């Protein structure tokens, strides 16, 4: 591109002109941008499940589920039944594969009592995974990397007897592997080919034929050759037989199936059943068996009463469950979520004589249905939450039921929707009648938007707002970093306390371990509360000294009674008698600590006195006094470890900014073992012994500057570790106390926010997470009959009893987030913040606007007119009494009394909220008879009031809202208006619409939307909107148009036409606009106000199909494409000035040449593995550095964190390089190749791979640490500090 011409009025000579032009060209040469280095960190893992299977993987008779996640993770969960009868899924193992998982199937080798898992992925390999304490894998490579249509791996099935597996490609290729078990290892034989040219495969399964040669069933179709005139062949069911004697695979048998057949499942065969397969198709299920000759048995599905009779319903999922005594049943699910039970009538000679299909219940559309041997159904949903359900009955005498009929295989294509509707029973979907949800696995899929900000108005850290779900499962989710808290009780106190303690029942009491007293210390008094059915104040009968503050108190073991320490001394209360110890002279106790047999007091001046319990007399005796050399501000005597008679160490924090570890061993009382210097004065200190005999002691120090310090203490020598971990918690001094969580020792840290520190057993690392609760002043452990693991705390003048939910703190490297959900009506598309005036003119209110729309759905008004109830309430009430008397599911359990009790409980009408929640299920609305129907609404929410809906405006006439933004027009005085882009009657194939509009709303009184006007838009659908210099910039198909506000409609000012495809994303800054094209990546434009035109200043030469973008600075844009890549693009220096044309003398053909447009430079690129649907630049900590926060369609929340020092870049780059070699590869996929899926990874470090360092063996960790010239502890600390800096 030539430089800009001179603006001088006089024309220079030719020589001067050429020289000046060359000089301008040199000045306009772009300068390479400075490289940016980023670290990809996973905050919340992907929750979408591609496939799942159920079996016994770690031990016999276990109920375990293996989940294949969309992020390339294999997770093993146990169906865990608690003592109180509740059922949950407990994570046992997580296996990172760094690959795209494609297939998953159970394999139980002959003679084995445990199951294995066969996995295929994009690595072109077959992996056999054995879930033991450390997952073992056996990998065999058979093809190229990538999800190619001709590379096997898309379909995977196993022989029911575990002798072989078949791996199939979408087209042509099939491989069969023989499996055998020898010397404790699974051996995979060489592959046997079963290829067929021009063959498309739809689904496969292993056929159960006893111990005869393994047979695999495939739904496939063979398309004609390119130059052939023959019509397409029919879709067929083919049997492929593996001859174990000849070691050969042949196509044994084939028969025609329905053209819509899409899924296949095998019935039990051999000695257990009739054999054969069932196939799911449109409007029915067909049964096929070679012995039926040319006959096919078809059973239509019951249909919803409100569904269109001209539209077929596809059966998408089949599963077969075996029961005792050769019994079995099948479950089938349709595309709208209705689940049917298929009963098969079998004669004495094991021949199928008929089938009945009865409605079971309505569940979310699933990727997998897994039935356990104990009557549990796991549903891996396509979108929304996954559920674990319990069968309450499986015999369905009153359910709508269809019977089967027989036709010839050659006429199976004649089966159509008209025939199915004529014979189908109808029903109205209701809440769950035969199933009961017992556990929910949260899944915010699909996630379409993210917003970060402190919008609640009364919290310290910002919240993450995400748009998630589809249709009836749609919701707005508010995520807060930390564990959720349940508030159990709140009561007022007479003053502001200075401390709180609990005293447990002694070992002679039947309530041993439970809290007996709550002791609240005030400035000049102590309040003692007894714990029972209620919490009541205790008078003088407690024998506590109530006219002085309490510094520490505890129960003494044996017959020692109770111990209370106050400023003037120590009191022992034993069998109603008092033993007092008074401070010598005028000294007073400043801090103290005690446990069941020891007490430690710190007097003014730095003197420390140690007391120990005499086991014979039960008296607490003074043992030794020692001067610590500095005033003591906090201390802790620790707890007595299991199997020990005393705590061997104590921690003492001094005002000279040191913490000392002293010995409590006999003969070495208060001898200093080690010390550590701090950067601030310690405020609180606690010792935490490991739950088992192995492991180091943890010392947790709370500092006055609002940070905490965690270090290890050697349990033998008492030496403090050299790599303590420091974390900033808040603006207030940190108070530390010990609490139990899930039976394990944990720490409660109180600052501006309460925090929890605990050891994760799965990963072996310490997890710190805040609590989503108000700031607390003091806290300690609380336990009662109703609350086994609770916390009693004070906040101001209130006493609070709370319990901590640790469900979100599992998973090791993943942060704990707790979620509040606001249900929505349709799939959320976009959200924006609006500043509105409230009822009080002096205050401005921030509201949140969300646009929702669903394709192939009806509006709310149409649904109401049809009588559709999305909750199933009316139908449930009508059919609630229809229950069978003899319909319990036959489960593999001998506990008949429990089953009878369960039946009695199930006969009760659901009344409480818990029961209603267990019976609730998402119900999709009636499907329109023809395409082009939409359901849509515009919702206004109040973020300061838990995102309460202020107003919801339903859009009718098949109008759908696709985008929205906040805009301030200069002509309206800068008032914030809501602009919404809509389309009417839009269809996807082909992509067209009846009309498009931009609607303007005004927010009235901060709680209501007022329509200003609608503007009809030509030239395409409105896909994006943005505020731009007091006007509205609109992306309309291939055009970018600028509008000013008029009285009756928007007024067109200027536009940029002829863009590549569709303007998908749009952002503005100053006089620039940045838009992402649906197929041609990012473009930058500038608005020239003097000539009123939009000028393209730069574009990306790579054809990226943009899904999301975020502006990082004036010249830098982050973009995510539909293939799962994130890239950072920057405008080269000087490129913008080269496009200036102040005189208008620039040639038209020069401006039109594509080569003349400056190209954006790629700073970073990285393959996430999931489609990044939205991103935002923000900080997750108040006052922290900004990061690029992104969300993916499968629910992952991640952050791209910029490095701030060269040392960090070198450390993480070297660590990633070593882990690319040393990290395990369960599927054989190279981590670097995975992250470079579409383009080589550039300047982004894989945080998931770096976090795998914690899971390596100690030998490998030591080897890598030596190469990095660091210790293992220093590397772990560096990884943790980086994550802590983000959160």
UniProtKB/TrEMBL annotation:
Domain of life: Eukaryota
Domain RSE1/DDB1/CPSF1 second beta-propeller positions: 486-803
Keyword Nucleus appears in the UniProt entry: yes
Principal cellular location given in the protein's record: nucleus
UniProt KW Ribonucleoprotein keyword: no
Alphabetical list of Pfam families matching this protein: Beta-prop_RSE1_1st (PF10433), Beta-prop_RSE1_2nd (PF23726), CPSF_A (PF03178)
Domain RSE1/DDB1/CPSF1 first beta-propeller intervals: 51-401
InterPro entries membership: Beta-prop_RSE1/DDB1/CPSF1_1st, Beta-prop_RSE1/DDB1/CPSF1_2nd, RSE1/DDB1/CFT1, RSE1/DDB1/CPSF1_C, WD40/YVTN_repeat-like_dom_sf, WD40_repeat_dom_sf
Sequence segments annotated as region (Disordered): 1-27, 862-932
GO terms under biological process: mRNA processing; RNA splicing
Gene3D superfamilies: YVTN repeat-like/Quinoprotein amine dehydrogenase
Keywords: mRNA processing, mRNA splicing, Nucleus, Spliceosome
One Gene Ontology cellular component annotation held by this UniProt entry: spliceosomal complex
Basic and acidic residues bias spans: 875-885
A single MF term (Gene Ontology): nucleic acid binding
Subcellular location: Nucleus
Biased composition (Low complexity): 1-17
Location of the RSE1/DDB1/CPSF1 C-terminal domain: 936-1253
The protein's name: DNA damage-binding protein 1
Organism: Cylindrotheca closterium
């Amino acid at each position: 591109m030539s430089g800009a011409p001179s603006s001088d009025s006089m024309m220079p000579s030719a020589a001067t002109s050429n020289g000046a032009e060359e000089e301008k060209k040199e000045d306009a040469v772009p300068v390479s941008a400075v490289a940016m280095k980023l670290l990809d960190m996973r905050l919340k893992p992907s929750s979408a499940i591609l496939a799942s299977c159920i079996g016994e993987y770690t031990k016999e008779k276990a109920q375990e589920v293996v989940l294949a996640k969309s992020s390339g993770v294999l997770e093993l969960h146990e169906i865990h039944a608690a003592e109180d009868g509740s059922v949950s899924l407990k994570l046992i193992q997580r296996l990172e594969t760094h690959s795209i998982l494609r297939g998953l199937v159970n394999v139980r080798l002959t003679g084995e009592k445990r199951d294995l898992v066969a996995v295929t992925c994009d690595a072109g390999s077959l992996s056999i995974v054995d879930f033991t304490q450390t997952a073992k894998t056996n990998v065999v490579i058979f093809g190229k990397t990538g999800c190619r249509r001709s590379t096997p791996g898309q379909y995977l099935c196993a022989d029911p007897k575990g002798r072989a597996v078949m791996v199939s490609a979408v087209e042509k290729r099939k491989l069969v592997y023989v499996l055998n078990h020898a010397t404790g290892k699974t051996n995979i034989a060489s592959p046997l080919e079963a290829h067929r040219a021009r063959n498309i495969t739809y689904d496969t399964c292993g056929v159960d034929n006893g111990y005869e040669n393994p047979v695999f069933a495939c739904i496939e179709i063979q398309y004609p050759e390119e130059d052939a005139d023959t019509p397409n062949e029919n879709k067929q069911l083919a049997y492929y037989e593996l001859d174990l004697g000849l070691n050969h695979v042949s196509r044994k048998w084939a028969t025609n199936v329905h053209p819509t057949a899409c899924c296949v499942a095998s019935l039990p065969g051999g000695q257990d059943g009739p054999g054969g397969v069932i196939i799911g198709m449109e409007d029915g299920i067909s049964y096929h068996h070679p012995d039926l000759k040319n006959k096919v048995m078809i059973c239509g599905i019951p249909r919803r009463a409100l569904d269109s009779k001209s539209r077929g319903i596809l059966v998408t999922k089949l599963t077969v469950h075996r029961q005792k005594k050769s019994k079995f049943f099948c479950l089938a699910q349709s595309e709208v979520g209705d689940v049917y039970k298929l009963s098969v009538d079998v004669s004495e000679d094991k021949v199928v004589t008929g089938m009945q299909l009865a409605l079971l219940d309505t569940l979310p559309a699933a990727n997998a249905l897994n039935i356990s041997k104990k009557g549990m159904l796991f549903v891996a949903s396509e979108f929304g939450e996954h559920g674990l359900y319990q069968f309450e009955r499986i015999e369905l005498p009153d359910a709508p039921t269809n019977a089967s009929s027989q036709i010839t295989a050659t006429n199976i294509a004649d089966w159509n929707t008209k025939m199915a509707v004529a014979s189908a029973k109808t029903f109205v979907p209701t809440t769950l009648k035969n199933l009961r949800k017992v556990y929910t696995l949260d899944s915010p899929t699909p996630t379409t938007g993210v917003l970060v900000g402190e919008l609640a108005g009364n919290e310290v850290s910002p919240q993450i707002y995400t748009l998630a779900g589809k249709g009836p499962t749609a919701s707005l989710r508010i995520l807060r970093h930390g564990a959720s808290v349940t508030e159990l009780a709140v009561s007022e106190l007479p003053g502001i306390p200075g401390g709180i303690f609990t005293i447990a029942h002694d070992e002679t009491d039947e309530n041993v371990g439970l809290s007996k007293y709550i002791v609240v210390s005030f400035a000049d008094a102590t309040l003692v509360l007894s714990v029972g059915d209620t919490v009541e104040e205790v008078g003088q009968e407690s024998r506590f000294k109530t006219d002085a503050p309490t510094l520490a108190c505890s129960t003494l073991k044996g017959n020692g009674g109770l111990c209370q320490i106050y400023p003037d001394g120590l009191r022992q209360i034993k069998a109603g008698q008092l033993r007092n110890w008074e401070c010598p002279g005028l000294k007073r106790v400043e801090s103290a600590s005690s446990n069941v047999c020891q007490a430690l007091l710190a007097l003014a001046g730095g003197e420390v006195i140690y007391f120990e319990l005499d086991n014979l007399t039960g008296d607490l005796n003074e043992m030794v006094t020692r001067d610590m050399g500095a005033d003591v501000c906090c201390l802790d005597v620790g707890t007595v470890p299991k199997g020990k008679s005393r705590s061997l160490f104590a921690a003492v924090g001094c005002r000279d900014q040191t913490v000392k570890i002293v010995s409590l061993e006999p003969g070495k009382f208060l001898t200093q073992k080690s010390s550590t210097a701090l950067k601030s004065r310690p405020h609180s200190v606690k010792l935490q012994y490991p739950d088992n005999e192995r492991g180091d002691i943890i010392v947790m120090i709370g500092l006055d500057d609002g940070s905490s310090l965690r270090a290890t203490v050697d349990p033998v020598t008492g030496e403090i570790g050299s790599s303590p971990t420091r974390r900033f918690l808040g603006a207030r001094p940190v108070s530390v106390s010990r609490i139990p969580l899930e039976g394990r020792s944990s720490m409660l840290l109180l600052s501006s926010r309460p925090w929890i520190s605990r050891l994760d057993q799965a990963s072996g690392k310490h997890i710190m997470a805040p609590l989503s609760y108000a700031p607390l002043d003091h806290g300690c452990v609380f336990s009662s009959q109703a609350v086994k693991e609770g916390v009693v705390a004070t906040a101001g003048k209130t006493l609070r009893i709370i319990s901590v939910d640790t469900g979100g703190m599992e998973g090791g490297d993943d942060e704990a987030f707790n979620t509040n959900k606001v249900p929505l009506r349709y799939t959320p598309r976009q959200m924006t913040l609006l500043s509105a005036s409230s009822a009080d003119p002096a205050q401005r209110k921030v509201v949140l606007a969300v646009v929702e729309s669903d394709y192939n759905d009806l509006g709310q008004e149409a649904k109401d007119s049809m009588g559709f109830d999305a909750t199933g309430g009316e139908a449930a009430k009508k059919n609630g009494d229809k229950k069978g008397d003899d319909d319990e599911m036959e489960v593999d359990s001998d506990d008949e009394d429990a089953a009878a009790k369960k039946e009695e409980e199930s006969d009760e009408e659901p009344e409480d909220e818990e029961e209603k929640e267990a019976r609730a299920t998402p119900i999709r609305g009636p499907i329109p008879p023809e395409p082009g129907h939409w359901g849509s609404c515009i919702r206004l929410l109040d973020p300061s009031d838990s995102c309460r809906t202020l107003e919801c405006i339903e859009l009718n006439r098949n109008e759908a809202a696709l985008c929205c933004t906040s805009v301030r027009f200069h002509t309206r005085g800068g008032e914030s208006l809501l602009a919404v882009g809509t389309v009417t009657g839009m269809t996807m194939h082909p992509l067209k619409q009846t009309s498009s509009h931009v609607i303007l709303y005004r927010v009235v009184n901060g709680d209501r939307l007022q329509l200003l006007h609608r503007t009809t838009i030509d030239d395409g659908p409105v896909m994006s909107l943005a505020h731009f210099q007091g006007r509205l910039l609109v992306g309309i198909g291939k055009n970018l148009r600028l509008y000013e506000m008029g009285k009756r409609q928007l007024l067109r000012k200027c536009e940029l036409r002829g863009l590549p495809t569709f303007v998908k994303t749009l952002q503005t800054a100053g006089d620039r606009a940045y838009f992402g094209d649906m197929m041609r990546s990012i473009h930058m434009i500038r608005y020239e106000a003097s000539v009123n035109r939009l000028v393209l200043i730069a574009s990306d030469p790579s054809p990226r199909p943009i899904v999301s973008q975020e502006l990082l600075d004036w010249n830098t844009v982050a973009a995510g494409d539909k293939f799962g890549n994130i890239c950072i693009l920057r405008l080269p220096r000087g490129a913008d000035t080269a496009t200036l044309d102040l005189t208008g003398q620039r040639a038209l053909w020069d401006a039109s040449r594509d080569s003349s447009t400056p190209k954006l430079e790629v700073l970073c690129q990285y393959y996430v593995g999931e489609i990044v649907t939205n991103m935002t630049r923000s900080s997750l900590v108040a006052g922290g550095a900004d990061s690029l926060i992104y969300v993916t369609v499968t629910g992952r929340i991640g952050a791209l964190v910029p490095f701030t020092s060269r040392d960090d870049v070198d450390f993480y780059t070297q660590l990633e390089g070593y882990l690319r070699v040393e990290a395990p590869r369960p599927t054989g996929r190279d981590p670097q190749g995975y992250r470079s899926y579409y383009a080589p990874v550039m300047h982004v470090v894989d945080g998931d791979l770096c976090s795998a360092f914690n899971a390596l063996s100690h030998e490998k960790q030591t080897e890598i640490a030596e190469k990095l010239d660091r210790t293992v502890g220093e590397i772990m600390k560096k990884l943790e500090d980086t994550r802590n800096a983000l959160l």
